[in-house]
Amino acid sequence: MNTKIKDNIIPGLSAFTALFPLSLAMGVCSGFGIYSGIVSLVISSLLAAFIRSPVFFAPSYLIFLLFTFTGAFCGNGLAFFSLFFASVAAFFISFVPENVLKKYLIPSAVAGISIASAFAMTAMKTTDYFGIGASGKDVIGILHDYVSLGFHANWRGVLYGTITLVIMITFPRKFKKGYKKFSPAMWSLLITTVLNFFLNPDKNTTAIPETGDYPVNIASIFSNAFFKDITPSGISFAVASAVSLALIISYASLSLGRKERLLSPLASFVSSMFGGLPSTATDLPSSGVLSGVSCAVLSLTAFLVPRFFISRIPTATLAVILIVTAWQAVDWHEIKLSFTSGSGALILFIVSVVLTVAVSLPYAVFAVFTLSVLYKTLLKKE
To answer: What domain range includes position 84?
Structure first.
């Protein structure tokens, strides 16, 4: 029995400590609500357990950015509508042989999107880290807000965010084995929230943005997906987002087995039906049904039970968790290869970076993948 617990429950506990803070951060910082992140994690964990997936599934930072931009421009309803169609498209794409997809996708293009998205995450969430109050809907807009509003940081938010930054960066290096069992993100969340109870004992007069009280009934989850101010430009943005989401979901699962490639869009599809964020595979190993179920149960319990604690988590902590996670996900090896794989790969990398920063992310992803396919097609003809 002890061996069974060690081999099955402990991986689920480790996944919970890593994925719960990240899913919480994505739900809160996306504007869709804390439940959107947690619902996605619970559904993904249960589905992964059901098919006995070797890895856990959870919301990813790049898809989070795509989904957040869509919600900001089009409203929550069109964002979930685009996720619905993206999941269906990605499900059918998963039947296409892996070698066919890789044939038309250049790694340098994806590397450019990756590092530019990390910059975009930093730009978009710095306002939550420092408490600036900027409200731009894209990178250019948020940078313009920073210039016009000026720098007037909230010292408590900066304190919590900096503590999180230090823990997230140093903990994996100092405790190479321990951080995989109990993630630095969870340590950051616990330490800064406890500190917040001392520095801001009364939640009604708190000096910083916090997670805040949140509804937990099913009706509130569905009410999160609403349609408002539907315009032609909003619809075109949602269509571009759906295509981009489908491409990213499909690309993120290319290295997985057939079952896992099918699970990723399925998890996003089911998640969208309950007001949750889209999901992709993580690098966290799962060892069976009990691992996935234990992660789901722990996540649901943490969401429902200690609400007094969850509601006092500083937004600055969650913002920095997202920023650091985005930079840790950058494939620096692929970026290096972009500079040594010929002028075509380098140009595509640069174009990917520029488009991702300068253009709304859904349009940028769609354009970069299109350029990658065209480039590979032209090389074949030559």
So the answer is: 2-381
User: Model-level pTM greater than 0.90?
Assistant: no
Q: Which one-letter DSSP state was computed for residue 53?
A: -
- Residues 300 and 214: their CA atoms lie apart, in Å, by 14
3-state secondary structure of 210: strand
Task: Give, for all 382 residues of the chain, the pLDDT tens digit.
Answer: 456 666 677 888 888 998 999 999 998 888 788 888 888 899 888 888 888 777 777 777 777 888 788 877 777 777 778 888 888 888 888 887 777 777 777 778 888 888 988 898 898 888 888 877 777 777 888 888 888 877 677 788 889 999 999 999 887 666 656 556 788 999 999 999 999 999 888 888 887 888 887 766 555 544 544 555 567 777 788 888 888 888 887 777 777 777 777 888 888 888 877 878 888 777 777 777 888 888 889 999 998 888 889 989 999 999 999 999 999 888 888 888 888 877 878 888 898 888 888 888 888 888 888 888 887 777 655 5
Q: For helices 315-328 and 107-130, give the axis angle rounded to 10 degrees.
A: 160
* C-alpha–C-alpha distance, residues 307 and 86, integer Å: 33
Number of domains in the chain: 1
**Residue whose C-alpha is closest to residue 242's, from 234, 254, 253:** 234
Cα 322 from Cα 338, distance rounded (Å): 26
